[in-house]
Amino acid sequence: MTLDITVPTDPGIYLMKDADGTIIYIGKAKNLRNRVKTYFNKNQNYKTQKLVENISDIEFVLTDNESEAFLLESNMIKKYRPRFNIELKDQQRYTYLRVSDERYPRLLVSRRTRDGKFLGKGKTFGPFTQGSSKLLTIGTLRKAFQIRVCKTLPKKVCLEYHLGNCEGPCEFKDAQERYPKHVLALEQVLKGRDKTKTFAKKLKVEMQQAAKLQQFERAKDIRDTLIRLASLQTRQKMEYVKNSDEEYFGISIREQSATVMNFRMINGVIRDSNKFFFDLVGDNSFSNFLYQYYSTHKIPRFVLVSQPPKDLRLLESLLSEQSGFTVQILTPVRGKKRDIINLILRNIELIHSKGGSPGLVELKEVLNLPVIPNIIECFDISNHGDDFAVGSMSRFVGGIPDKSGYRRFRIKTVHKRDDFAMIGEIVKRRYYRLLEENSELPDLIVIDGGKGQLSATVKSLEALGLSLPCISLAKENEEIYRPKKKTPIIIPKYRSSLKILQHARDETHRFGVAYNRTIRKNQIK
User: What is the C-alpha separation between 11 and 300, in angstroms, rounded?
Assistant: First the structure.
């Protein structure tokens, strides 16, 4: 696409769309025209080039200032989830509970829209860590506080009443009078008040009585609930510590990808740690990452970073407004805080030293490879009639092209249009030569094609006495086929592992087409 549209100079956001009208990237800018023009410069990295190749239209939404653009961009990314934007797929998700706004309230898991708004009326509690809240919701909490579960209040008591799980406010007046007290006690537990300890003591007594009566299944259920309740109490202690919570972030940028690692510190103790990876496409930046991260995580008073993010003051202002207290983003240069930052950076270096590119580590896990595929060789056939068929191979080392290792092949033994036989020929020629030269073999062979091309590759390798990991990548749905496996692997489009394979495939195709074109020109001359 060439930039032949009128672009405003106002602040706002831009929505890039593909030929189907699907939004593939959303960005923000203080001056939309200046920012959008940069995408069409020649010196862009590979991933930004891939974005630009897919752009068919750009839509603009104007805002009054940069702050509004920041907020609107974040909400639109959550709503549309464009494939080229940062989306923290591996971030921890938290559950929220809702006490409904009804005459006799129910306890429910609170649902949220993509832009973070809670659905339904009532009081929302949380966030709670995964696993604890939902089981408590549908289990002992509801039963212990006699909270109804029926969506519509019946005229007569139901089975829950006869099981002892509900006092029947639908029918009995005394139950109706006691119900608000039950709800209040439940809310105190969810808020982390002293009532939680009282409730836990009551459960322990019930567990001991159940054990004495040899009701072991009941005792086990109560024990499991106590464990989850302890997790709930731990979260509450962490949540309500004031002026002492800090979160540390280290970032390392290599080639076209960023690796971020964080430590959550409460009273000087590391309580949580996560790793994140994202591509440096368009406006994807450390600043955008932090804002996306805190749209779903509790905001601390102090965010300590290895390097200051772009738009630091604006980001501090937005997080402060969102949290209701002053948030500071600091870059420590000495002392214990700097020591923690250095520890995070050492951890990131360890990640890189184990596999270089995070996408290669991911590739090893997804394909169940014996080693991290540091050396990848990819093959393709470029056909233009029976007389013009060539083979090409790209070589990637550490997840990036090693162009000195690229190879091209004139087809010698196949005299008709047979892609399977051609692939078999060039693979056999390539690795026969490497064996003769005693050269290093690849960690992974990638074939552009489907099951047929893969089968031909395996036969050629077996003829040479080789057993190298190999896959084929079918372009239409990006399906990955493995030898002797019927079901293909589908890697999500946002994964860096798939992007490495796509890059290798695209490079091989480009190299082969260029060679084919050269041969045809020479033939004509």
Answer: 29
Q: How far apart are CA 46 and CA 43, in angstroms?
A: 9
Report how far residue 255's alpha carbon sits from residue 473's, in angstroms, rounded to the nearest whole number. Answer: 24
Show the domain range for 30: 12-80
Per-residue confidence (pLDDT) for residue 515, from 0 to 100: 83
Q: CA nearest 377: which of 356, 394, 360?
A: 394
DSSP tally for the chain: helices H, then strands E: 16, 19
Provide the number of structural domains found in the chain.
Answer: 4
Pair 508, 379: CB distance under 8 Å = yes
Decide if 293 is inside a domain. Answer: yes
Return the residue matching tokens 């005299």.
415
Q: How sure is the predictor about 455, in pLDDT bands with cuts at 50, 70 and 90?
A: very high
The torsion of the CA quartet 407, 490, 481, 433, rounded to 10 degrees, works out to: 20
Q: Do residues 404 and 499 share a domain?
A: yes
CATH number at residue 377: 3.30.420.340
On whether the pTM is more than 0.70, the answer is: no
Q: Pull the structure tokens for residue 177.
A: 């009078």
Q: Is residue 395 in a domain? A: yes
Residue of 378, 382, 387 lying closest to 405 (CA atoms)? 378
Contacts of 290 (CB under 8 A, 6+ apart): 249, 303, 309, 315, 329
Q: Kindly report the backbone phi and psi dihedral angles of residue 480, in degrees, each rounded to the nearest multiple of 5, phi listed first.
A: -105, 120
| 193 and 222 co-located in one domain | yes
Q: In this structure, how many other beta carbons lie within 10 angstroms of the beta carbon of residue 139?
A: 15
3-state SS, one letter per residue, for 441-460: CCCEEEEECCHHHHHHHHHH
Final residue of a structural domain among 208, 239, 270: 239
Query: Residue 192: its pLDDT value, please?
Result: 61
Instruction: Look up tokens 């031909």; give the residue.
Output: 456
- pLDDT of 90-108, one tens digit each? 444 456 778 899 999 998 8
Instruction: Classify residue 497: in a domain, yes or no.
Output: yes
Does 2 reside within a domain? no
SS3 411: coil
* Helix (H) / strand (E) containing 249: strand 245-254
Domain boundary among 338, 354, 370: 354
